[in-house]
Amino acid sequence: MKYKFTGKTKVVFGRKLKQIQSTKSFGIIAKGEIGGYIESKKNLSVSGNAWVSGDARVYGNARVSGNARVSGNARVSGNAWVSGNAWVYGDAWVYGDAWVSGDARVYGNARVYGNARIRTTVINLIASCEFNITAYDRYIQFGCYLHTITEWQKILKLKKKYREDCSSDESYKQCRKALRFVIDILRSKR
């Protein structure tokens, strides 16, 4: 068993949730680390590196497994599953019969419910470019700009597009190079 109950509880929608604590080190979790809240042992797999932390709550028939993480104030309930390398964090809720899997990230105030299925590959690159580049299956976010792969390919053909956002010509060249690199990775996965 990789976790135990601390004895601290919370009642949420009439359900008694129990705080967890790791009993051994695994993944990035240290032995003795205090976790979030689950209703029963069926909510958090004892195999893999899955973990619930912060004030996150998992209850009902919901399940967190694989290397998945649920943290912050996130809620996973109903018959929802979070698995693979997926992360649910912030104030996000996953409920109903929804599944979040693969390398998907659900965060902020997002709500995933019903029969929704979210599975994606996310690449987050902090290159020698001054902006974060986050790539999803079909989209790439560069700083605050979000476009499809095809749109970015067209934009890269325009020599000065978004140049004003970079602090120097060298930074602009590095950002364009990083974008091309991410596009090549995503295209190779198709």
Description:
This protein is of the alpha/beta class and 190 residues long. 15% of the residues lie in helices and 34% in strands. Strands 1-2-3-5-8-11-14 form a 7-stranded mixed beta sheet, with no helix packed on it. The longest helix has 20 residues, at 169-188. It is elongated and about 60 Å long. 30% of the residues are buried. The model has no long low-confidence stretch (mean pLDDT 85).
Features:
single chain, 190 residues, alpha/beta, UDP N-Acetylglucosamine Acyltransferase, domain 1, 2 domains, 7-stranded mixed beta sheet, 4-stranded parallel beta sheet
Number of strands: 19
Quickly name the level 1 CATH class of the largest domain. Answer: Mainly Beta
Give the tally of structural domains. Answer: 2
CATH topology of the largest domain: UDP N-Acetylglucosamine Acyltransferase, domain 1
- Note the beta-strand portion: 25-35%
**Main sheet strand line-up:** 1-2-3-5-8-11-14
Instruction: Specify the CATH architecture of the largest domain.
Output: 3 Solenoid
Report the mean per-residue pLDDT as an integer.
85
How would the global form be characterised? elongated
Give the distance, in angstroms, between the N- and C-terminal Cα atoms. 39 Å
Low-pLDDT regions: none
Query: What string gives the helices and strands in order?
Result: EEEEEEEEEEEEEEEEEEEHH
